[in-house]
Structure formats: structure tokens, C-alpha cells
Amino acid sequence: MHIPDGFLSTPVWASMAVISIILIFYALSKAKGKLGERSIPLMGMLAAFIFAAQMLNVPVAAGTSGHMLGGVLAAVLLGPFSASIVMTAVFIVQAIFFQDGGITALGANIFNMGLIGTLMGYYIYRGLRRVTKQFLASAAVAAWAAVMLAASACAIELAISGTSPLYIVLPAMAGIHAIIGLVEAGLTVAVLVYVSRSRPDLLKLPKV
Fold it and tell me: Is 63 left (phi over 0), alpha (psi -120 to 50) or beta?
């Protein structure tokens, strides 16, 4: 899902960079003061786990790739804004040191996966849990939906940039990520089950 350099038009990547910067600063302001002693090491561990999981890429049409996100998992454990900061840090390291995603496309990649895939995914989880009272099922559905939202946003940006027609890139991205989303949902549930049994205190999030 990482978009390489040269795949987005200048107006698109520049706009996404501005939007992402604004949202990142908003996330930082919301997370400020909510990071307790447990949060900092947990953020580091989640960043390392998500970084490793995202390095397993599956080629998709138009030169992009498909992979897991981890945003909903991070948001359930850290809260949505702290999780967005973690995701942003992961994408910056990937782009600069591992050439996974372009530098000019960094804003779009952060927006798609670190912000849409995390913030919207989290609030889907919150809404489902409030209605169904089902913790794990809500997290699973939200994790799958977050992957699909991020993939769809990526496809739309490529189409607007003229890289690939929407009727080609959207089905390609949505199709492979519908499957990847199932794996993401399963992994999210597996980690949350482990955490709920070993460290249930980590699931006591501040209200957002």
C-alpha cells in the first residue's frame, strides 16, 4: 500500500502532505498529557511489531504493494492519537531508511495508513463495541475495515494523479486487501486475546 515516488501528481502529494502535517500536529496535541509511564515503552514495542509486520509486502497493480497495517491494534492499546503518532514514525523510518514508500508520497502514505487506517478504524471499533458490546468482534471488523479504507484512499489518489484508472486500481487494491484485511483481523484478535490474559491493564484506555 506504500505509494512510491513519481506515482502521485504534484497537487495530490503536496495536498496530502499538508493535510497529514495538520492532522499529525492535532494528534500530538490530543496525545499530550495522556502518555503515562506504561505508554512510552508500549509505543516502542508496538512500533517495532508493526514495522516488522508491514515489511511483508504483496505486489499489487500500478506499482503499489499490499501489507498489514496494525493501526487498529495500536489504537485499542494506546488510544487513537498516540497510535497515529506511532504509525507516522513507522512510515517515516520506512521511507527514509528502507525506501519503502516514496519521500514525496510520505504525506499520502501517512494519511492513508497512519491516519485513516488508525483514527477511522478506531472509531469504527468504538462504535461497534458500543452497539454490540463485543470487544474482540468489534476489533476484528474495525481492523478489516481500516485496511479497506486505507487501500481505497490509495487507489483514489493514484486515479486522481492519472497513474491508473480508478476502474483498474480500485478493484485491484480492494481485492487483495480484502484478503489481507482478514489476516489483519485475525492477528489483531490474537494479540488482543494475549494482552487481555497477560496484561489486562493495558486495555484500560483513556476516554477520547
Answer: left
